């Protein structure tokens, strides 16, 4: 599950970090510390999200499907 969460973190962190940077730039906050802070906040927020997604996907793969 840890490997799955790590791969998901790469995807989720880049998406959330990019969205946060886009939002900051749309608000015309052009200072370097504001842009870097938005990206860091997106990366920190991605940690629990990727852990939850990894756990849900791992558990779904472990349980047998009812339709199969």
Describe this structure in words.
The chain has 68 residues and is mainly alpha-helical. Helices cover 82% and strands 0% of the residues. Helix 1 (2-26) runs antiparallel to helix 2 (32-62). The longest helix is centred in the last third of the chain and has 31 residues, at 32-62.
Tell me about the largest β-sheet: none
- What's the pLDDT, averaged over the residues? 94
Structural class: mainly alpha
User: Can you give the helix content as a percent range?
Assistant: over 70%
Number of domains: 1
Counting H and I runs of at least 4 residues, what is the number of helices?
2
Q: What Rg is obtained from the alpha carbons, in whole angstroms?
A: 16 Å
Proportion of residues in extended strands: under 5%
Point out poorly predicted stretches. Answer: none
> SSE string, helix = H, strand = E?
HH
Strand tally: 0
| End-to-end distance | 24 Å
Which outline best applies? elongated
Topology (SSEs and partners):
Layout: H1 2-26, H2 32-62
Helix pairs in contact: 1-2
């Amino acid at each position: 599950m840890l490997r799955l969460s790590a791969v998901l973190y790469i995807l989720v962190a880049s998406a959330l970090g990019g969205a946060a940077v886009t939002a900051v730039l749309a608000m015309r906050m052009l200072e370097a510390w504001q842009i870097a802070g938005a990206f860091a906040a997106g990366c920190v927020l991605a940690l629990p999200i990727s852990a939850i997604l990894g756990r849900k996907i791992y558990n779904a793969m472990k349980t047998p499907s009812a339709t199969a």
